[in-house]
Write a structure and sequence with these properties.
This protein is mostly helical. Helix 1 packs antiparallel against helix 2 and helix 1 packs antiparallel against helix 3. Helix content is 90%, strand content 0%. The chain has one domain.
Length: 136
C-alpha cells in the first residue's frame, strides 16, 4: 500500500511538470512567431528605403551622366584636333557604359545578399520544431 501512495505522488508531480513544459513550448512558439513578424516588417521597411534611394539616385545619376557626357565629349573633341563630335560622344558613351555596368554589378551583388526572410527567426523556428518533434 505504501508503494501505491508513492507512485501516486510521483505521477501527480509529473503531470504539472509536463503541462508546464507544454505551456512553455507553446509560449516560445508564440514569441518566435512574433519575432518572425517583427523581422519581416523591419526587412520590408529596409527594402522599401533601399528601393526609394536607388530610384532617386538613378534619376539624379542619369541627369548628371547626360550633362557630363556632353561636356566630356565637347572637351574631347576640342582637345583632339580633327576628332568629330560624334566620335567624341561615342568614346565618352562607351566609358560611361562600362562604369554603369560596374555599378549595376555591385548593386546586383548587394541585392542578391539581401533577404526579406528573417534568417534568425526561421532558424529558431526550425530548432523549436525539431525539438518538439524529436525530444531527447
Amino acid at each position: 500500500m505504501a508503494t501505491d501512495t508513492t507512485e501516486h505522488r510521483e505521477t501527480a508531480g509529473l503531470a504539472p511538470l509536463v503541462r508546464d513544459i507544454i505551456t512553455d513550448a507553446q509560449e516560445l512558439t508564440r514569441q518566435q512567431m512574433e519575432l518572425f513578424k517583427v523581422e519581416i516588417r523591419e526587412n520590408s521597411e529596409k527594402a522599401k528605403t533601399i528601393a526609394m534611394l536607388f530610384g532617386a539616385g538613378l534619376a539624379v545619376g542619369v541627369v548628371a551622366a547626360i550633362l557630363l557626357a556632353f561636356a566630356a565629349a565637347d572637351g574631347l573633341a576640342y582637345a583632339i584636333d580633327g576628332l568629330p563630335s560624334w566620335g567624341a560622344r561615342a568614346i565618352v558613351g562607351a566609358v560611361l557604359a562600362v562604369v554603369a555596368g560596374i555599378l549595376f554589378g555591385v548593386c546586383k551583388s548587394r541585392a542578391d545578399n539581401f533577404s526579406v526572410v528573417p534568417e534568425k527567426a526561421v532558424e529558431a523556428m526550425k530548432e523549436n520544431l525539431e525539438w518538439k518533434t524529436k525530444p531527447n
